[in-house]
Write a structure and sequence with these properties.
Layout: H1 3-19, H2 21-24, H3 31-39, E1 60-63, E2 66-68, H4 71-80, E3 88-92, H5 98-104, E4 109-114, H6 117-129, E5 135-139, E6 152-157, H7 166-170, E7 172-182, E8 189-196, E9 202-210
Parallel strand pairs: 3-4, 3-6, 4-5, 6-7
Antiparallel strand pairs: 1-2, 7-8, 8-9
The chain binds S-adenosylmethionine.
């Protein structure tokens, strides 16, 4: 990867973090999150046609009507999860596998669910080829979570849900965090952070307006609708 492109991407992420801090409450990202964003070669996760734009701070098409998210949003959502070495994370919406690769450098294990079989297959093979050994990808509807590996220290949903799937709240450990965009595709969606305390009580914080592709499957009430992409 060209060093200067990655530097520019990191600089933009830091600028956008400062620019949005009044909304997000995040004035700077953890150094280890920035380091993971630096290390993962985003160009390996985008189709050939878009490789020249791989380090632009923009979502890009990955086929099947889906996108790889904007780098700033990936970095912010990663930071909001409070990743660290002993955590086990569930991702809903593997897409290209990029977000899972970033997380894999920060946590013990990532489990990632993707509803579209072709994307799940490509992402799984890509992550293996690139040597991300602590990521397991499975094809399935992430609205049901992944009961065999639950509960999780953190759950990240990278498609927008019309409502928060109850299974995901249930599969969160006490002390855990769920980062999820919520809202209908045609309308403004809000990135939320839910925190479950040691008694199992969940509190919710609103972070930022975002625009994600919709969560489909039984957890999404928004199948077949289109939105802008992150
Ligand atoms: N995290 C991805 C990445 O790093 O490339 C980007 C995710 S893309 C914005 C959203 C993904 O969520 C799409 O690949 C879509 O097929 C997937 N998706 C939508 N509904 C889903 C569901 N119910 N379960 C699992 N994946 C789902």
């Amino acid at each position: 990867m060209k060093r200067s492109d990655v530097d520019a991407m990191l600089q933009t992420i830091e600028e956008e973090t400062r620019f949005t801090r009044g909304l997000t409450g995040v004035s700077s990202l953890r150094p280890e999150v920035l380091q993971a964003m630096r290390q993962v070669p985003r160009k390996e996760f985008v189709p050939n046609f878009y490789k020249a734009m791989a380090y632009d701070n923009t979502p890009l098409p990955i086929g099947n009507g889906q996108t790889i998210s904007q780098p700033f949003i990936v970095a912010l959502m990663t930071d909001l999860l409070r990743p660290d070495r002993d955590k086990v994370i569930l991702e809903v919406g593997t897409g290209s596998g990029y977000q899972a690769a970033v997380l894999s450098l920060l946590v013990q294990q990532v489990y990632s669910l993707e509803i579209i079989p072709a994307l799940a297959g490509v992402a799984s093979a890509r992550l293996r080829r690139l040597g991300y050994q602590n990521v397991e990808v499975r094809q399935g509807d992430g609205s049901s979570g992944w009961p065999e590996h639950a509960p999780f220290d953190g759950i990240i949903v990278t498609a927008s849900a019309a409502h928060i799937p109850p299974a995901l709240k249930e599969q969160l450990k006490p002390g855990g965090r769920l980062v999820i965009p919520v809202g209908l595709p045609a309308m403004s969606q809000e990135l939320l952070v839910l925190e479950k305390d040691e008694q199992g009580v969940i509190s919710t914080r609103q972070i930022l307006s975002v625009a994600f592709v919709p969560l489909t499957g039984h957890g999404g009430d928004n199948d077949n609708e289109k939105s802008e992409h992150h």
